[in-house]
């Protein structure tokens, strides 16, 4: 599967700072110090209804992570998956009377277009669950060999008790885990499981549903968590720098994935930092496909909204915050974009050196984009009222906003 084209990231004078970011597993900030190549895995979409503002906010957060690392002169090895076979996708295809493969391809194409418009830097490896199946099967077989997996009516489950570190990603108690498991794709009430929290590794073939030859596992398809584990281990190995996604993935998805990987390799942890973006609401409720209260990037683009304004709307909220999308949020972003573009259109202006360092400092401090935006606002206000004599300043500001914030002026 191919990703989307990369927009050019302008080079800036000086060098960025190492990223200090909130780690869900420890509950506090950690300073990341990757080697020459920073490694990040971000969980991708299930392509049956893309791309709403919740998606966009999540991928915007991890785009900032990449940009901070690139500014430190590191390379970035970014991997993202596409869950192109899963129950929600199959259910939507059946509801709409369309082929599930065609639906997945259609929505993945739309997602790529939205990411391109928003200037999100693409992953080096963009891998679908279906294409990852040949690598998933041996991992499930290995977990069985290790005694960490068992069969129940043809389905194969992972035993969470096989991982002594289980629970260290989310920090939740058993009751909270069980509740979230039921809400987020698990089956804690299924009779016969060793532990209600045990997640499925391999689902035996169901009538009318797609399945693949799993060798000793029989015909079926992979569970959700093992998919990402197989892709991450194949392309990044263990103890990569950041595992990212929305806050609703901390449990069960990232918790279960970490346990799978840790049992398979005997190493801990799977990732140095587990980083989660907040949820975006509409009309008082979290945007979700099940509720249908969605604002789509593609629809805004069709309505003539500048993608740079959409991006500024996302950046105006801290990535870990839960917030609500409103018409006013978009209007404020459009007005800000107009002010910034007017400011950099002048032939000269106040010095930009301090501004570049302010943006760097804000982003290195847990991706504090709102503070970075406020710094650019102040420069633009001075430019409007007082001007300046530095003929290179507007160009430096324009390049800095592009390189560090992903906004093309």
What do you see in this structure?
The protein is of the alpha/beta class and 409 residues long. The chain has 2 domains: 20-286, Rossmann fold (3-Layer(aba) Sandwich), CATH 3.40.50.620; 306-405, Up-down Bundle (Four Helix Bundle (Hemerythrin (Met), subunit A)). It contains 13 helices and 15 strands. The strands form 4 sheets. It has a 5-stranded parallel beta sheet with strand order 5-4-3-11-12, with helices on both faces. A 5-stranded antiparallel beta sheet has the order 6-7-8-10-9. It has a 3-stranded mixed beta sheet with strand order 14-13-15, covered by helices on one side. Strand 1 (20-23) and strand 2 form a beta hairpin. The longest helix is centred in the first third of the chain and has 19 residues, at 53-71. The protein is globular. The two termini are 31 Å apart.
Which fold does the CATH topology of the largest domain refer to?
A: Rossmann fold
The tally of domains stands at 2
Computed Rg:
22 Å
Estimate the helix proportion, in percent.
40-55%
Q: How many helical elements?
A: 13
Proportion of beta-strand residues: 15-25%
- The CATH architecture of the largest domain is 3-Layer(aba) Sandwich
Low-confidence stretches: none
Number of strands: 15
Helix-strand topology string: EEEHEHHEHEEHEEEHEHEEEHHEHHHH
């Amino acid at each position: 599967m191919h990703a989307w084209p990369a927009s050019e990231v302008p080079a800036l004078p000086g060098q960025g700072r190492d990223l200090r970011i909130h780690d869900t597993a420890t509950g506090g900030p950690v300073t990341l110090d990757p080697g020459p190549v920073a490694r990040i895995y971000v969980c991708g979409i299930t392509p049956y209804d893309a791309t709403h503002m919740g998606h966009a906010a999540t991928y915007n957060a991890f785009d900032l992570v990449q940009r901070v690392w690139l500014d430190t002169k590191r390379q970035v090895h970014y991997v993202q998956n596409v869950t192109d076979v899963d129950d929600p996708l199959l259910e939507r295809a059946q509801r709409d009377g369309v082929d599930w493969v065609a639906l997945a391809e259609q929505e993945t194409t739309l997602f790529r277009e939205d990411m391109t418009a928003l200037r999100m830097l693409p992953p080096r490896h963009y891998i679908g669950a279906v294409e990852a199946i040949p690598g998933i099967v041996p991992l499930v077989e290995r977990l069985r060999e290790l005694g960490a997996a068992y069969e129940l009516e043809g389905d194969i489950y992972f035993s969470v008790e096989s991982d002594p570190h289980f629970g260290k990603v989310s920090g939740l108690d058993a009751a909270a885990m069980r509740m979230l498991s039921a809400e987020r794709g698990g089956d804690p009430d299924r009779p016969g499981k060793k532990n209600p929290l045990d997640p499925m590794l391999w689902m035996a073939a169901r009538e009318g549903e797609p399945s693949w030859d799993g060798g000793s596992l029989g015909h079926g398809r992979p569970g959700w968590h093992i998919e990402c584990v197989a892709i991450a281990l194949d392309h990044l190995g263990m103890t990569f720098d950041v595992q990212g996604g929305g806050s609703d993935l901390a449990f069960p998805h990232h918790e279960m994935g970490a346990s799978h990987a840790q049992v398979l390799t005997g190493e801990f942890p799977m990732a140095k930092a587990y980083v989660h973006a907040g949820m975006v609401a509409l009309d008082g409720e979290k945007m979700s496909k099940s509720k249908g209260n969605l604002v789509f990037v593609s629809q805004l683009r069709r309505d003539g909204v500048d993608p740079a304004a959409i991006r500024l709307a996302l950046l105006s909220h801290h990535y870990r915050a839960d917030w609500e999308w409103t018409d006013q949020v978009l209007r404020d972003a459009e007005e800000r974009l107009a002010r910034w573009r007017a400011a950099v259109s002048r032939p000269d202006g106040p010095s930009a050196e301090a501004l570049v360092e302010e943006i760097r400092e804000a982003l290195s401090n847990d991706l504090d984009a709102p503070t970075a935006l406020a710094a650019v606002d102040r420069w633009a206000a001075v430019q409007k009222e007082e001007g300046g004599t530095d003929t290179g300043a507007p160009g430096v500001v324009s390049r800095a906003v592009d390189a560090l914030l992903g906004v093309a002026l």
